[in-house]
Design goal:
With about 350 residues, the protein is an alpha/beta fold. The chain has 3 domains: about 100 residues, Alpha-Beta Plaits (2-Layer Sandwich), CATH 3.30.70; about 120 residues, Oxidized Rhodanese, domain 1, CATH 3.40.250.10; about 90 residues, no CATH class. The protein has 11 helices and 14 strands.
Length: about 350
């Protein structure tokens, strides 16, 4: 029986994907569906997707599936046929990435989780099927032309920092779980207003719009397919593009450009920049924005302190990690005290 998880060292896999000449398509999809046996479905997926040379990150839970993957272009039709053969995924929308880039993923990871998106909600306490009205790109533009319409970005602060829709409210939250009650509080007294929510591919708004309606908001809308599908539709239909900057993505690319504007700043020097990196010092590994000049000067690190660390012997670096950082320091992405030019918010403890 084939291994149902990757056993090859990540460094080797990264080198392999960088040397691969084949073109790949990056895409995402999700579906809320009652899965009776997510562990069985997880293994079934792994066996088939491995054969199709699919890389990516997939979460499976009793409530459905959430997938971000890449597939060789010459096997895309096989992948689509396979997904269509799964009854609850038949006809399901595939969000194809805006930018063609083969480097989005380098291995296949499929995990069983309690939820396909960590929202912190008790689904038994409200009607999760009572969602907001879906809007395509044209409908989104028309409704948001009204200055009285409230636009809410349902992503985290480090995502909206590099790109967002015009006039959008940008909650200063680290996680989706944290953002849900924050948005309810922010919009108190505006329950009868038109509210339009959006996220990367649409999945977070499926739950968020139902949560807002449960909390008394009566005119809730959501951008169908999220920013990814919006970008595709405005290009295909020649519509005005209301998105400014980059769309943050949760893969090796860390972003895809939707408009030519650079609306963020380097967290080190403050100059215009919108490219995310993880600090090269693995004891830090903080996600941050860095311009080309600072990246060259600091050799891929977020500070001179971290640059000094990468020249220590590996044994000392490992010991330093044990002494200084318990758990994952980069959970608060973009919040490190050393990042002087953060755009919003204070460093969280």
């Amino acid at each position: 029986m084939k291994a149902l998880h990757n056993k090859i060292e990540g460094k080797l896999l990264r080198e392999a994907i960088h040397s691969e000449a084949r073109k790949r398509t990056t895409l995402s999809f999700y579906k809320y569906w009652n899965l009776r046996n997510p562990h069985f479905f997880r293994d079934y997926l792994y066996l088939h997707l491995q054969q199709l040379e699919v890389f990516g990150r997939i979460y499976v839970a009793k409530e459905g599936i959430n997938a971000q993957i890449s597939v060789p272009d010459d096997r895309f039709s096989e992948l689509k046929d396979f997904l269509e053969s799964i009854n609850f995924l038949e006809g399901n929308r595939l969000n194809v990435a805006v930018e063609a880039n083969a480097m989005s993923f380098f291995k296949l990871i499929i995990k069983v989780r309690d939820k396909i998106v960590a929202d912190g909600l008790n689904d038994d306490t409200f009607d999760v099927t009572n969602k907001g009205k879906h809007l395509n790109a044209r409908e989104f533009n028309e409704l948001t032309d009204d200055p009285d319409t409230i636009i809410v970005d349902m992503r985290n602060h480090y995502e909206s920092e590099v790109g967002h829709f015009e006039r959008a409210i940008l909650p200063d939250a680290d996680t989706f779980r944290e953002e849900l009650p924050l948005v309810v509080d922010l919009l108190k007294g505006k329950e009868e207003k038109n509210i339009v929510m959006y996220c990367t591919g649409g999945i977070r708004c499926e739950k968020a719009s139902a949560w807002m309606k449960h909390n008394g908001f009566t005119r809730v809308h959501q951008l169908e397919g999220g920013i990814i599908e919006y970008a595709r539709q405005v290009k295909a239909q020649g519509l005005p593009n209301k998105f400014r900057g980059k769309n943050f993505v949760f893969d090796e690319r860390l972003g895809e450009r939707i408009s030519e504007e650079v609306i963020a700043n380097c967290h080190v020097c403050g100059n215009p920049a919108d490219t995310h990196y993880n600090c090269r010092n693995t004891a830090c590994h903080v996600l941050f924005i860095e311009c080309d000049a600072c990246r060259e000067k600091l050799e891929g690190c977020c500070s001179e302190e971290c640059r000094n660390v990468i020249y220590l012997p590996q044994e000392e670096q490992q010991e330093l990690r044990k002494q200084l950082y318990k758990g994952v320091r980069y959970f608060h992405k973009g919040r490190g005290k050393q990042l002087v030019f953060r755009k919003r918010g204070e460093t969280k403890k």
